[in-house]
Amino acid sequence: MQRFVLAGLSHETNTFSPQPTTLGRFGRSEDESGLLHGPEAIAGMAGTRTPVGGFLDILEGHDAELVVPLVASAVPSGRVTDESYETMAGRITDAVAAGADAVFLSLHGAMVTDSHDDAEGELLRRIRAIDPDIPIAVALDFHLGMSPELCRNATVVTGFRTYPHIDTYETAQRAGGTLLRALAGEVEPVISWGVLPLMTNMLNQTPLRQPMKDIMDRAIAAEADNEVLTASVFGGFPLSDIPHTGLSVIVVSDGDKAAGDALRDELLDLAWERRADFIHDFEPMTASIARATSVPVGPVVLHDHGDNCGAGGVTDVMSVLGECLHQGLDDIVAGPYRDPEAAAILINAGVGATVTLDLGGKVDMPARGLTGQPMSMTGTVTAVADGRYKVTGPMMTGMAMNLGPCAVLNIGPALVIVCTDPLEPFDVDFYDVLGIDPTEHRILLIKSRQHFRAVFEPIAQEIIGVAGPGVCSEDYSVVEFERIRRPMYPMDLDTPKTVIGN
Ligand SMILES: [Zn+2]
Fold this sequence. Notes:
By secondary structure, the protein is α/β, with parallel strands linked by helices.
């Protein structure tokens, strides 16, 4: 019987974040015992619309022993510690070393560790060193930092085609399905890849809109028409100050490198021609909030994209709420803000208690020259909860989520949600946990860049982005990069089109 290794290891590393990423952010404890694996991992991920859920479904029914040494993902934050990485990567390589006929991996593609700028490439290099011929399928996030090691050592690579990421399940099925066809001798995957010196702004890179829509549509059509086996375009993750940041393409052809190269070049050309459209024009925070004051009916979604934990934000920067109150907005639901100490104070006080406390501002952000600024407030505790729920929205449907112990403080103009663990609101289910109906309020102030749209767009009268301060700020005129490839567009407007690839 064949033996398949299936594993998930996912982290989007914001190298500007002051928070190191330790094992506890991937599992239930700071030691190895808290990592999900084996039958428990299979039970937890089965039926979810996630990459691991997609792999599980496509592998079901195959006459193979399925080994799951690790399913671990952490909310974006700073570099992953070497100890954590070695522990998790070691789980996967040990499973391969014990004997495997194929490997199926759900990785992010933007994981950076203390020692490795390219943690996924390093993992694949280690697997390939154990078995030079083993077939490896990899499903990746759209926010990829593509590296030669990754492309050289994988057999099939696919990436998310959506942002918000609502096709993560399908992405794994495309990778896994193609690898299964290769194992059966039906196809012969050959990778063509390339990276542009182009840093897209995350506010302008979703395939829902131009210019990415045309580029992604061409990749999808090429795959649908069987021009190639798979074609993936990656917007890149610009909050990683590492050498392989940039917009990239991977095409997997059926034994026809020339066809794969031609499509890769076509997709990269499309992106390069429209590179100016990937630049974002930033509006000052005060002006964005002022626009909200003139919208007649709510809910108005104000999304603070400067401190979004979904891209590595510390989630306790209070500036945007402060400015909303300063400008006289009311009927606001704000948060969640991550502040474990404040959450504990509110929970201990209990529902109905009046509490005065300093919220947020506990974390300094030296890479951006920012110091934490707590916000003093007084209010009444209106709800407390354990913060656990399951996602019903279209992104990561069925996943168990956890805000940790959390509470709501009513300070008059705002209901302020305070939590223990960081969580980007890519669904509205967390409001339920705290007894809040988001449709009944005028302003929904959240910290998110793009993922909120799948569920907030249908309930919002208006959506206004707010460039709050934080480690997710993408105003490249103020962010200091030291290690990215140069020249890089748009930092260097006269950058020539030089593609790194195969
Ligand atoms: Zn992503």
